[in-house]
Design brief:
By secondary structure, the protein is of the alpha+beta class. It has a single domain, classed as Glutaredoxin (3-Layer(aba) Sandwich). It is 40% helix and 18% strand. It is built from 4 helices and 5 strands, in the order H-E-H-H-E-E-E-H-E. The protein is elongated and about 55 Å long.
């Protein structure tokens, strides 16, 4: 096995720091919870989760957005389900969130502070 140079070690350290920052919960204003129960996975929740995870890098949301997984939310007929909490907005539960809807949620709700009304399952009263 080849030895790593000091520069290689620095690159590896920086890469790992970025990966750890994605998992850090402190100071995150946006929380996304993707239902990953067996019903959600069967309905395509893995692809939905991947869209949110990729947005951490592509949309520069790693410092502000936390992504978590949850077991079944009890809404099997509406899977995949995603709960989104953005600072200054009510918590919203979305249903039937495929990859395209997840991209809409990122653009409209998370970045634009506007609900994706076609997929809202539950929203607390103001």
């Amino acid at each position: 096995m080849a030895k790593l140079s000091l520069e290689d070690l620095r690159k590896l350290r920086d890469f790992k720091k970025k990966e750890i920052r994605k998992r850090d919960i402190v100071g995150k204003e946006i929380h996304v919870v993707v239902g990953m129960g067996t019903c959600g996975i069967a309905a395509g929740a893995k692809k939905t989760l991947d869209v949110f995870i990729n947005a951490l890098d592509t949309e520069g949301l790693a410092d502000t957005m936390l992504i978590r997984q949850s077991p079944c939310m009890g809404l099997c007929n509406s899977e995949p389900t995603v709960e989104v909490t953005v600072s200054g907005m009510p918590r919203v539960l979305y249903g039937k969130v495929d990859a395209a809807v997840a991209a809409d949620i990122i653009k409209k709700h998370i970045q634009g502070h506007e609900l994706v009304k076609d997929h809202v399952l539950d929203q607390p009263a103001r």
